[in-house]
What we know:
disordered N terminus; binds magnesium ion; 3-stranded mixed beta sheet; 18 helices; 5-stranded antiparallel beta sheet; binds adenosine-5'-diphosphate; alpha+beta; globular
Amino acid sequence: MDLCGKFLTSASVGKLMNDKKIPTSKWQRGAITGMTTARIGLKHLGHLGSTALSREKVQKQALHEAEIGKILINAFMQLRGTALKVAQMMSMELDMLPDAIRRELAKACSQVTPLNRAHIRKVFLNEFGQAPEQVFKSFEADAFAAASLGQVHRAVLKSGEIVAVKIQYPGIAASIRNDVQLVRGIMKTVSKGTSYLPDWEIIDSVLNDVQAQLEQEVNYVQEAANTDWFRQKNQMPSIHIPLVYEDYSSEKILVTQLMPGKHIDAWLEDEPEQEARNHYGQLLMNMFSHHLYDLGVLHADPHPGNFLFNPEQGISLLDFGCIQKLKPGFPQTLVKLCTRDPEKIFYAYQTQGIIRQDLSFEEFEHGFFPLIEPIQNWMSMPFQTAEFDFALLPPMPQKHTQNMKYAVKQVGEVRQDQVFFDRSFLGLLSLLRRMKAKIVTQGLLRDN
Ligand SMILES: Nc1ncnc2c1ncn2[C@@H]1O[C@H](COP(=O)(O)OP(=O)(O)O)[C@@H](O)[C@H]1O
Ligand SMILES: [Mg+2]
């Protein structure tokens, strides 16, 4: 479909971003994958549990895991393109899958064959009726970066601007549903034969989330509109958001201003001074707070590749494929969640509908709260003091709870904004931890 020139205006994006009604049943199942997951540590439980296992049992379990690993890897390696991506995304979400599977899948995905010149030409002809060398003054045939559903090339517009051209692998949009079904089929077959994989319900719900995310990311027209919206709303001069060249973009091609800067890995390799760590860390944290409280919309893809550290002390924020409007009032409750006071947390959870409405405070305090306390404390640690040194943040607690069924029953409605908030927030904390940044956290969570 040629959507060139039919771009969404800011007003229509606003409309699109209005609270979408998500079928409850779906996000109910999502209870197992979203914020609640992180809070309760459900992701890590499943088959392992916390009780001490005998040596013999541990060995038997390791053997079983290796077996399942082999079966799954063999099955997944037959997959191509998005199906492989689906398998990888699923394995990332289900971090209780045996490590061997996760490693193999990560490897497989970084080996996706790049599009050659002929493919690229075909995409351009389909989208614009013109080859890249007709569209641009110059176009680099080799990609300089990989995108999750495509690849990114440098080019120069006829008007002279240097741009990044993100090209989507052909056929992806059409195949998402089928590919998810394919992976679902494999997982169903394998999980039937073993008790060493997560419950089928969890796998199924993760696959639903993966599908929803892919369907959002595959739409570059929406991404262009999102980018534009953030660029217009951004009030932080040190945060740079690329200009979108709408006339050059379509559903499968996104052309943006080429932004300067390094990915975090390259930046860390240069062993930056503590002052620089603090500066960039503070910027990232302030940006999160700005999005939460001033815009009410989150950039919800915390992949480290989406932040470029600029030489001029700024950060380029890329990739608006996944953004999330927050329910009014939600960001303001975070202050209460950071108090560590069970009563305040109880009321915040209740107002937000995170716990079931008929859960009494007594039951919350003695039954549910102890389960979520370790992760709750971990997430709020940076906000207990006016300043926080992320070098001192321990790894996220990986609580194995035997009480999953109980915990899930206490959960109320799970909304998409909570799920995405959680992902962004955990992503930010882990980024700041890697940066070993010392930053001011006072005042960043607000109740107004
Ligand atoms: N405007 C841009 N300027 C500089 N680099 C870019 C730009 N757009 C994309 N890139 C590079 O391409 C990578 C993938 O692009 P991104 O938009 O994040 O794709 P995806 O949505 O698939 O993650 C980025 O991590 C970055 O290295
Ligand atoms: Mg990205």
